[in-house]
């Protein structure tokens, strides 16, 4: 299974192109990406196409869609972009995704295991700092609960 790990920052050029970091390109092995707005954070999720396709639930035309099915289809399937980085690993980011993630001069790529995220660099650092603090608070609470 492909694992995207680490954090890398690359420049965003005037044509809205950014290079996928070499370690991430190596893990993609030429596979295309599915880009989508994160529904939880001000960033873009980048999924290897095969992982995204495998996660999509098969729907029978005989099934009547529920409201949840509609929400998933509209938010997670209709509002995505299939993209193939060029031979140099560059991809062009569309304006709506740039705006969603507040990207202008640089992009921070953060590994999330099966996929990676594209963040505005300062927002990425703030997200990591907040996550570290949450983990430290959990560790403190656990230690206090065990009487250590």
Automatic annotation (TrEMBL):
<feature type="domain" description="SpoVT-AbrB">
    <location>
        <begin position="80"/>
        <end position="123"/>
    </location>
</feature>
<dbReference type="InterPro" id="IPR007159">
    <property type="entry name" value="SpoVT-AbrB_dom"/>
</dbReference>
<dbReference type="InterPro" id="IPR035642">
    <property type="entry name" value="MraZ_N"/>
</dbReference>
<comment type="subunit">
    <text>Forms oligomers.</text>
</comment>
<keyword id="KW-0963">Cytoplasm</keyword>
<dbReference type="GO" id="GO:0051301">
    <property type="term" value="P:cell division"/>
</dbReference>
<keyword id="KW-0131">Cell cycle</keyword>
<dbReference type="InterPro" id="IPR038619">
    <property type="entry name" value="MraZ_sf"/>
</dbReference>
<dbReference type="InterPro" id="IPR037914">
    <property type="entry name" value="SpoVT-AbrB_sf"/>
</dbReference>
<keyword id="KW-0132">Cell division</keyword>
<dbReference type="InterPro" id="IPR003444">
    <property type="entry name" value="MraZ"/>
</dbReference>
<feature type="domain" description="SpoVT-AbrB">
    <location>
        <begin position="7"/>
        <end position="51"/>
    </location>
</feature>
<dbReference type="InterPro" id="IPR035644">
    <property type="entry name" value="MraZ_C"/>
</dbReference>
<dbReference type="InterPro" id="IPR020603">
    <property type="entry name" value="MraZ_dom"/>
</dbReference>
<dbReference type="Pfam" id="PF02381">
    <property type="entry name" value="MraZ"/>
</dbReference>
<comment type="similarity">
    <text>Belongs to the MraZ family.</text>
</comment>
<protein>
    <recommendedName>
        <fullName>Transcriptional regulator MraZ</fullName>
    </recommendedName>
</protein>
<keyword id="KW-0804">Transcription</keyword>
<keyword id="KW-0238">DNA-binding</keyword>
<keyword id="KW-0677">Repeat</keyword>
<keyword id="KW-0805">Transcription regulation</keyword>
């Amino acid at each position: 299974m492909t694992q995207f790990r680490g954090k890398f920052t690359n420049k965003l050029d005037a044509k809205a192109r950014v290079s996928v970091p070499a370690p991430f390109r190596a893990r993609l092995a030429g596979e295309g990406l599915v880009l989508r707005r994160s529904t939880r954070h001000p960033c873009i999720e980048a999924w290897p196409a095969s992982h995204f396709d495998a996660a999509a639930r098969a729907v029978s035309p005989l099934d009547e869609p529920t409201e949840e099915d509609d929400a998933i289809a509209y938010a997670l399937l209709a509002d995505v972009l299939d993209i193939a980085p060029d031979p140099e690993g560059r991809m062009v980011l569309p304006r709506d995704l740039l705006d969603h993630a507040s990207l202008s001069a640089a992009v921070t790529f953060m590994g999330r295991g099966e996929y990676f995220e594209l963040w505005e660099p300062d927002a990425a650092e703030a997200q990591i700092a907040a996550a570290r603090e949450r983990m430290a608070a959990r560790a403190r609470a656990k230690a206090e609960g065990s009487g250590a």
